[in-house]
Design a protein that fits this description.
The chain has 11 helices and 8 strands. The protein is α/β, with parallel strands linked by helices. The protein folds into 2 domains: 169 residues, Rossmann fold, CATH 3.40.50; 103 residues, 6-phosphogluconate dehydrogenase C-terminal like domain (6-phosphogluconate dehydrogenase C-terminal fold). It has an 8-stranded mixed beta sheet with strand order 3-2-1-4-5-6-7-8, sandwiched between helices. Helix 4 packs parallel to helix 5 and helix 7 packs across helix 10. The longest helix has 27 residues.
Length: 279
């Protein structure tokens, strides 16, 4: 792998470029993004050069698609005519089923391997990129078949995952989307819903709140420009996650003066402790 083309040099794409460099990558990193983002990425030393999408794709050994989900799907409509044989196309989309299905239909001259680095921040843009963003975080790969992991290009990409600080997890696109509906999308919506509720009820200038509220609403700073695509492409799983959460809240509401609530607190504390043991 000598040339990497990053389509969408924002938080994730920019961090991937910086993590590659920190991990020892000595090749060329090309950026494909908006003019404003490209200028910032060049100024910050995140990429070596910028090229139009067709030229970048034709030169790259690895194409890393880190745009919003619908943009990735649109990009897959065109890439096959541009890529060189033997190249690997992967993505960083937060949902996988749509992207993997589209790639299986459209990519024939190169290999596609779906991916999702489970890392992020509430801030967007290449200015927020950092080389350690993926440190200690899972990197999900969603091959269509086990053989998709055995090609030379796929093997080399997997070797880079620990070098950028992550560890790989292999699952199907469908299993991924069902899982992240609970572990990623539900926390985002819970935080946003809480902040939206309080926005209409309280004046935060009163300062009557503690760090719990600040922590609980951190994800509400996230942009709908990113989350709109995520929720649109995982609706059924997200509806199930929301229904399950609402049912649990209803259980808590009915248990405010019973031992059931203590059991709920105990169960929540056990999960929270386990989560912190592995992160």
């Amino acid at each position: 792998m000598q040339t990497v083309a990053i389509f969408g040099v924002g938080l994730i794409g920019g961090s991937f470029a910086l993590a590659l460099r920190k991990g020892g990558f000595g090749g060329r990193i090309i950026g494909v993004s908006s003019d404003q983002t490209i200028r910032a990425a060049l100024d910050l030393g995140v990429i070596d050069e910028a090229l139009p999408a067709r030229e970048a794709a034709s030169q790259a050994d690895l194409l890393y698609l880190s745009q919003p989900i619908h943009k990735i799907a649109e990009c897959l409509e065109e890439l096959d005519a541009w890529v060189k044989p033997g190249a690997l196309i992967t993505d960083a989309g937060s949902t996988k089923t749509l992207i993997v299905d589209r790639a299986s239909q459209k990519i024939t001259r190169a290999q596609f391997l779906g991916g999702h680095p489970m890392a992020g921040r509430e801030r967007r843009g290449v200015e927020a990129a950092e080389a350690d963003l993926f440190q200690g975080r899972p990197y999900v790969l969603t091959p269509l078949t086990p053989g998709d992991l055995e090609s030379p290009a796929a093997r080399e990409f997997q070797e880079w995952i620990p070098r950028i600080g992550s560890f790989p997890i292999i699952m199907s696109a469908e299993e991924h989307d069902q899982t992240v509906a609970f572990t990623s999308h539900l926390p985002q919506l819970a935080s946003t819903a809480l902040a939206a509720l309080l926005e209409s009820r309280f004046n935060n200038q009163t300062r009557v709140y503690g760090p719990a509220l600040v922590d609980s609403t951190r994800l509400a700073l996230s942009s709908f420009e990113i989350w709109g695509d995520i929720l649109d492409t995982n609706r059924d799983a997200v509806r199930l996650a929301l229904a399950s959460y609402i049912a649990k809240l209803e259980e808590f509401r009915g248990a405010l003066d019973t031992p059931t609530l203590r059991r709920g607190f105990d169960a929540g504390a056990r999960f929270a402790a386990r989560l912190r043991d592995v992160t």
